Amino acid sequence: MCLAIPGQVIEIVDDQNRLAKVDVAGVRRNVNVGLLDGEGGVGPGDWVLIHVGFAISQVDEEEARATRDMLVRMGADYEQELEELKASVIE
């Protein structure tokens, strides 16, 4: 199962390639935020939904927390998604 999981942008690490370091439940990974440029872009402190290494939607903190809480209740599928995120690397 593939999930879109919420994360908070920590910093833009490569503006030219549109990469940002995002914190997802304590796991920090680089993700591509270029898909959100048409919406005004994202920056540090913003919340996004991440799917396969791309930020696909910007959300507010309340929605991000509600989504995360729902995913945590899913149990194994969410834990598997976090493990896959830990193993991923975008540079």
Q: How is this structure best summarized?
A:
With 91 residues, this protein is of the alpha+beta class. It contains 2 helices and 5 strands, in the order E-E-E-E-E-H-H.
Would you give an account of this structure?
A five-stranded antiparallel β-sheet has the order 3-2-1-4-5. The chain has one domain: SH3 type barrels (Roll). It has two helices and five strands; from the N terminus they run βββββαα. The mean pLDDT is about 85. With about 90 residues, the chain is an alpha+beta fold. A hairpin with a 4-residue loop joins strand 1 (about 5-15) and strand 2 (about 20-25). The chain has helices at about 60-75, 75-85; strands at about 5-15, 20-25, 25-30, 45-50, 55-60. The protein starts with a strand and ends with a helix.
Could you name the key traits of this structure?
5 strands, single chain, alpha+beta, 29% helix, SH3 type barrels, five-stranded antiparallel sheet, 2 helices, globular, 91 residues
Enumerate the strands of the largest sheet in spatial order, edge to edge or round the barrel.
3-2-1-4-5
Seen as an oligomer or otherwise, the chain set is: single chain
Termini separation comes to 25 Å
Query: What Rg is obtained from the alpha carbons, in whole angstroms?
Result: 12 Å
Main sheet record: 5 strands, antiparallel
List strands and helices in order, with pairings.
Elements: E1 5-14, E2 19-24, E3 27-32, E4 47-51, E5 54-59, H1 61-74, H2 76-87
Antiparallel strand pairs: 1-2, 1-4, 2-3, 4-5
